[in-house]
Design a protein that fits this description.
By secondary structure, the protein is mainly α. The chain is 53% helix and 5% strand. The relative contact order is 0.21. The chain starts with 7 loop residues before the first helix and ends with a helix. A two-stranded parallel ribbon has the order 1-2. Strand 1, helix 2 and strand 2 form a beta-alpha-beta unit. The chain has one domain. The radius of gyration is 14 Å and the shape is globular.
Length: 116
């Protein structure tokens, strides 16, 4: 399912606000520019679930990649401080616990958000 790029940051922001199960987002080689990268970094504020994010292969300025990396580090720290993160760390898991079916559920919910 393709989500229009202008809605990407809005959708990530909404997934944070609604506490949707978005833990992994692959955005490599999607034609994202620095403006989209800045919007994505901003949208990650307050997120405690998106523990895997790939933006490789997009034409973003180095400073924007630093912004994304810093936002991602804050997400990782918040996840480790969450109940889910503490439980996963205690169980010896390095990343977010994988939950069957949550990716498909997230895409359905994201499609609804993108149609707002």
């Amino acid at each position: 399912m393709l989500i229009p790029l202008p809605h990407l940051a809005q959708a990530v922001r909404a997934s944070t606000a609604l506490r949707l199960p978005l833990a992994h987002l692959e955005l490599q080689s999607n034609g994202l520019d620095s403006s989209a990268g800045r919007a994505l970094a901003s949208a990650l504020r307050g997120n405690a679930r998106l523990t895997e994010l790939n933006v490789n292969g997009n034409a973003m300025e180095p400073g924007v990649l630093v912004e994304i990396r810093e936002a991602k580090a804050a997400v990782d720290a918040a996840w480790r401080a969450s109940d889910e993160g503490r439980a996963a760390v205690a169980a010896g898991q390095g990343g977010a616990a994988k939950e069957g079916g949550t990716g498909r559920r997230f895409l359905r919910e994201l499609a609804e958000i993108a149609s707002w």
